[in-house]
Request: fold
Amino acid sequence: MWPGWGRSLYGSPEETLARIEEDTRRAQERGEKLPVLQAAIADVRAKAVARTRDISVEVDAAGVIRDLEIADSALDRGGRRVSAEVMELVAKATKNARVRTLEVTTEIMGKSDPIVGVVAAELIPDQDDDGVTHRGGLR
Reply:
């Protein structure tokens, strides 16, 4: 009989079946975690407040503004200055929301899950990225 006869390139049929069962179990566990992850990401919020405490911005995981508060006292600085401050705060809050989204993803899925790498690649901005805009317009 030839050496290795009856064995596949990946081991014995029993070893192959055990690997398939383990892969299936991991896929099921991952599938159970995904709705939890989606809910957790939907709950992510990050807030940034101006040094003067008269402007605050809250964004969700996608950087969408969920709350914007501008006190009357901020308007004394003029519309252009307030607009610039709001945009700076949106960028800061969005960066914080990205960090929180990655933390939540890692906590729920586990550090070794491939989705953590995908989320990190999506959320870690390029050096020239202001955290708010990208090719073609607003995020």
